[in-house]
Amino acid sequence: MSTNFIDCSEQEQAREVREFLKSLGAELEVSDDSADVTDIVNNCSVVWKLESALDIESVVNSIVSLLLLLPEEILKPKIDEFCETVVRDATEANKLNLCLKILIGLFHALSEHSSLRYPVYMSMLACAKRTGHLQMVVTDLVTLKLWRDFWKLNDETWQALLRQLHETLVTCNEGALAAKTMYELLSSYTGEKANEAREDSIRCVAAELKNPDVYLFDHLMSLKPVEQLKGTKIYELLDIFVHKDLPDFQKFAADNKDSLKQYNFDEDELLRKIRLLTFASIALENKDLTFATLSEKLQLSNSEIESFIIEAIRSKVVKAKIDQVNQRVQVASVAHRTFSSSEWKSLHSVLLSWRANIDAVSKQIATISLDLNNPL
Question: How much is the pTM?
Answer without folding.
Answer: 0.74
